[in-house]
TrEMBL record, chain A:
Keywords: GTP-binding, Nucleotide-binding. Pfam families: Ras. PANTHER family: RAB FAMILY (PTHR47981), RAS-RELATED PROTEIN RAB-7A (PTHR47981:SF20). This is Uncharacterized protein. PROSITE patterns: RAB (PS51419), RAS (PS51421). It comes from the Eukaryota. It comes from Planoprotostelium fungivorum. SUPFAM superfamilies: P-loop containing nucleoside triphosphate hydrolases.
UniProtKB/TrEMBL annotation, chain B:
Residues 115-323 form the DH domain. This is DH domain-containing protein. Residues 12-25 have a biased composition (Acidic residues). Residues 1-102 are annotated as: Disordered.
């Protein structure tokens, strides 16, 4: 798995043209540049209430809904970005609502390239859960690229988990330290940075693996 | 804004929440929702109507309170619970005079209902999207596969499971919801044009959702049907495997998977993304309904039914989750059974659960010791090495010192990895070293010595001793703690009577030993007799057939289970 999704190719001419008659043949493939894009599937994991959906929304739509916040919002959002001059489609999947249901989650994480572990910097508990999120939910942690995102950095005064650096020793192996950041879904601090960095790290890692 | 203002119409709207669904005449309901949507088509007028409705609701609430007060004073008719329908003879809306505080209350009530409308809008909107996704899955992925005979029907069924049944359930749910909330029914959709028209209609009307509507009964009535998600969820791993295998061997299928991603309806999503949607959807009803409850006043007729509906769905989601966990655990046990070589009985049992898998360094292994000190004296240990003789002699570089340990709720199995060169129908990756009932097994801590740290001893039911070490002191303590936790639970299950509970441990052990021995004796006879009876198909021995027998009912022992290492993940 891993980079499997990102390697879409235009079907070769030599491939059996059995589907030509049906209307789902190559005629749908209108835009080659879309097809050659790399697709990165990112999943957001973390305790309920840490702001997974909001982060996703902030990154893709540059919005933060303070007035009426949708309960679940979209299942996933996509954004086209350029990472090191490579066109990449980021597909970010939200796991809101699945926090309680571990076994359901396991199925969900297959096929993802990267996993962003989100915690609330004002809640020690949400940080402590990060380890168990990583271990309990992912069966083959080596297939994944992990980054850590500390959300709600806009709320300064009641900060419990002070700095990622402080808690670094606690961090488990396999998390990409350099792309772990403190972000704020509310005012957008570092959100774009964090996701771009995450995409770059995942791509580099995939390149190394393959 | 039509005739909504006329009091008889407005009365009707308000009573909807008080009358059970079945008692409302469908024509009447249609009229109501017509008048409702008409009244709301213009945004500004809609706001006014909203305010008026809220006022009316508030008025009823006040009247109900007054009635209650009167009742309490007079202490007459104490059995009746005051509901909003009591104050049906309320005065006209405009003549309502309010104090400052009441005006504030009214304002917050209006805000609540505005939020409630958003909640309902989201429930309907996400349901629509979900149904759309399921439909796309059926039309873009399932049907062409079937029509063009790309895959065998059996494989199609493995991949898509009951997704069509789920689609029909949700079409019905969506139908009911839209009837209740807006007057558009997706049932009339026969072709693409109608679907497009419906999509337009539903999005323009989406904002005109009736904010007071009751929907709990719709979810409650369909609650039990949601249980079919168990089938879907449990099949999911098989579906993934089936896709992977077919993709590998069938070029046509692989091509199909690639091409369909770019189907206009697919929205650049692969098959897997469509198959995962049902798994995502179920837990989300809980979130959606919980938020709806937050914006439903406690005196609203739907308040209590909604809480009940959420409980029901939560129960089902928990059940689905639990079933999935159990089925995964059993699959793990089946895998161990397949990969383990040696003389042992069937390890797949309905009640058995794998609790822990651990890898140790085996310090008193014959080979390991001979590596440390090549003197011959150590090989005359109690071990009877059951490794197959066909295998090559151990080379000095071989990592024989690893001992894999599986702790089950009633059993402990120790095994060593096999050498690579095994050939057979199923790759045997482990050689059995010990098979021991958990109550007859002891784990003893041992002090560190110079070159052996974090070591402890496992004594099995045949008094074989395995001295092993782990990488850290914490890991060792954790393992020993967990082992005794499992053992104490097994012991509690064993202590049938009060007398048993107080009996000394060795008596219990003796009792258990006898029980196990007699059981094994029975099973041996069983094995012999059934191999004879199954002569035609020698593959189906009880070892195999046990997998399919029994529906893994042992729930009680599961529920007691507290898993310390996972507890922080289950956030409520």
């Amino acid at each position: 798995m891993g980079c499997g999704n990102s390697q879409e190719e235009v079907p070769k001419a030599s491939a059996p043209n059995l589907l030509e008659k049906a209307d789902y043949s190559e005629s749908y493939i209108r835009n080659k540049s879309v097809i050659n894009r790399k697709l990165l599937k990112v999943i957001l994991l973390g305790d309920s209430g840490v702001g997974k959906s909001s982060l996703m929304n902030q990154y893709v739509h540059q919005q933060f809904a303070a007035e009426y916040k949708a309960t679940i919002g979209a299942d996933f959002l996509t954004k086209h970005v350029m990472i090191d001059n490579v066109p990449v489609t980021m597909q970010i999947w939200d796991t809101a609502g699945q926090e309680r249901f571990q076994s359901l989650g396991v199925a969900f994480y297959r096929g993802a390239d990267c996993c962003a572990l989100v915690f609330d910097i004002n809640s020690e508990k949400s940080f402590d859960s990060v380890t168990s999120w990583k271990e309990a939910q992912i069966q083959n942690p080596h297939d994944f690229c992990f980054v850590l995102l500390g959300n709600k950095v806009d709320i300064e005064n009641q900060r419990q988990v002070l700095k990622i650096q402080r808690v670094n020793p606690l961090m488990m192996s396999g998390v990409q330290k350099e792309s772990s950041q403190l972000v704020s879904a509310k005012n957008g601090t570092c959100v774009v940075d964090a996701f771009d960095c995450l995409a770059a790290t995942t791509l580099n890692r995939d390149d190394l693996v393959s | 804004m039509g005739n909504v203002g006329s009091s008889s119409e407005a009365e009707g709207i308000f009573e909807e929440s008080d009358i059970p669904e079945s008692e409302i005449d469908s024509a009447e309901r249609l009229k109501r929702s017509n008048s409702m949507t008409e009244g709301l088509l213009d945004g500004k007028e809609g706001e006014k109507t909203m305010t008026k409705w809220t006022k009316k609701y508030y008025q009823r609430r006040r009247a109900a309170k007054q009635k209650q007060l009167e009742q309490e004073k007079g202490k007459s008719d104490t059995g009746r619970r005051p509901t909003l329908s009591i104050g049906s003879s309320a005065e006209p809306v405009h003549s309502l005079t309010l104090s400052e505080k009441e005006k504030e209350d009214l304002k917050s009530l209006e805000k609540t209902f505005q939020k409630r409308r958003e909640n309902l809008n989201e429930i309907l909107g996400t349901e629509e999207r979900y149904v759309k996704q399921l439909q796309t899955c059926a039309q873009v992925w399932l049907e062409p596969l079937r029509r063009e005979h790309i895959l065998e029907e059996q494989h199609i069924r493995t991949i898509f499971s009951i997704i069509e049944v789920i689609l029909h359930l949700h079409l019905d749910l969506l139908d009911q919801l839209s009837r209740r909330l807006i007057n558009v029914t997706p049932r009339t959709i026969n072709n693409k044009d109608e679907l497009a028209a419906y999509n337009v209609a539903s999005t323009t009307l989406g904002a005109e959702i009736y904010p007071f509507a009751s929907i709990a009964d719709i979810f409650k009535a369909r609650g039990d049907f949601l249980k079919m998600y168990i089938t879907y969820v449990n099949n999911f791993n098989a579906a993934l495997t089936c896709i992977a295998i077919n993709k590998e061997k069938d070029e046509r299928f692989a091509h199909f998977l690639k091409v369909q991603i770019h189907h206009p309806e697919s929205n650049n999503l692969d098959l897997l993304s469509f198959l995962i949607t049902p798994i995502q959807r179920l837990p989300r009803y809980i979130l959606l309904l919980e938020d709806l409850i937050k914006n439903t006043p406690q005196d609203h007729a739907d308040y209590v039914p909604l809480t009940l509906a959420v409980e029901k769905i939560r129960g089902i989601a928990d059940h689905v989750n639990e079933e999935k966990r159990v089925s995964e655990n059993i699959q793990q046990i089946m895998k161990i059974q397949d990969e383990l070589a040696g003389d042992f009985e069937n390890i797949v049992e309905p009640h058995r659960r794998l609790k822990r898998t651990e890898k140790f360094t085996w310090l008193n292994s014959p080979t390991f010791r001979s590596m440390v000190s090549p003197s011959k004296s150590v090989t005359d240990e109690v071990f009877d090495d059951i490794e197959d003789n066909r295998l090559a002699a151990p080379s000095p570089t071989r990592d024989v010192a690893t001992l894999t340990c599986w702790v089950f709720n009633d059993l402990i199995i120790l095994a060593t990895p096999t050498r690579q060169s095994w050939t057979g129908p199923i790759a045997k990756r482990y050689n059995l070293k010990a098979y021991s009932h958990i109550l007859l097994t002891e784990v003893r801590d041992m002090p560190d010595i110079t070159n052996q740290k974090n070591r402890f001893e496992i004594v099995t039911e045949n008094n074989k001793s395995f001295v092993v070490s782990m990488t850290s002191g914490d890991a060792k303590e954790n393992f020993i703690k967990d082992f005794y936790w499992e053992r104490s639970k097994a012991n509690n299950l064993l202590a049938f009577s009060a007398a048993d509970a107080n009996a000394p441990v060795h008596e219990l052990r003796e009792k258990e030993r006898k029980r196990i021995e007699s059981k094994r004796q029975l099973e041996k006879q069983d094995l012999v007799s059934s191999t004879i009876s199954n002569e035609g198909s020698p593959l189906i021995t009880p070892l195999r057939s046990a997998r399919y027998s029994g529906a893994f009912k042992e729930k009680d022992s599961e529920n007691i289970r507290v898993e310390p290492q996972r507890s922080c993940c289950s956030i409520v």
